[in-house]
Amino acid sequence: MTEMARLHRCRWIAIAAMCVSATLCLAVSQPKIAREFSGKVIRVTDGDTVKVLVDQSPVIVRLEGIDAPEDGQSFSARSKRALETLVAGKTVTIRSTGEDKYGRTLGFVFVEGVNANARMVAEGWAWHYKKYSSDEQLAQLEVSARAARIGLWADPNPLAPWEYRARQNPPHTAASDKPAATTGTYWLNTSSNVRHNARCEYYRNTRSGRPCGPNEGRACGSCGG
Q1: How many domains does the chain have?
Q2: Nearest residue to 141 (alpha-carbon basis) of 159, 163, 120, 156
Q3: Which residue intervals of 71-223 are DSSP H helices?
Q4: Which of 156, 180, 182, 183 is 20 to 30 A distant from 14 in Cα terms?
């Protein structure tokens, strides 16, 4: 076995151990379970949301305590694919903690004894959503995934999805109050000479860069610069 293969094997053994630990600690470290039910996953919306068919009725389940990259963000497709590989088309058990403000069921998703919430964080495909969760197990899984630089942590400076959403939905401003585009409204990645606007996930989020005007550099292919 090569040194690279040995390290890879050790890394996944460690992840498996952490996921088992997360399952065992569920009753201690996670929110009170309001109800438990089972159903078949008929759709994976993204890395933290699934649709489950329960008694012939679809139920949208938001995975408790985690937050995955939004559609359009780096790693969003891979995060979704990771959850699909884990639960799509399978019968899962939901340990619900209640509902979120959108009426979605919040809960921990278990498939074949595996805590999917913990697995997504352990494999580096989701953040521990600390704003709404004080789960120590999920927090430790994120720390370990960061240290191993797996999944989205391969990016040295990934943008958290809650920050991405805030940039996509800035506070409403009346048209008459909107300032003219000036230097500082855009960000120039000085390594690639690509310009990003304030709603882009790379705005002020590159290894090297500076504020710039609307005509400097090349427009970002994602945000339009």
Answers
A1: 2
A2: 120
A3: 76-87, 116-122, 136-148, 161-168
A4: 156
Tokens of 50: 């699934």
Q: Are residues 148 and 181 in the same domain?
A: no
> Same domain for 20 and 109?
yes
Asked whether residue 103 falls in the same domain as residue 127, the answer is: yes
191: confidence class by pLDDT, cuts 50, 70, 90:
confident
Give the range among 13-17, 68-72, 158-162, 176-180 with minimum mean pLDDT: 176-180
Strand partners, 212: 186
Confidence bin at 220 (pLDDT 50/70/90): confident
Strands 35-46 and 49-54, bridge-based pairing: antiparallel
Residue at a domain's end among 129, 154, 179: 154
Q: Are residues 24 and 65 in the same domain?
A: yes
In sequence order, what are the beta bridge partners of 93? 38, 110
Residue 129: both structure tokens together: 């959503």
Six-digit token string for 123: 């494999």
The set of catalytic residues is: 62, 70, 104
Cα 97 from chain centre: 20
Which of 96, 123, 122 is CA-nearest to residue 30? 96
Cα–Cα distance measured from residue 58 to residue 60, given in angstroms and rounded to the nearest whole number: 7
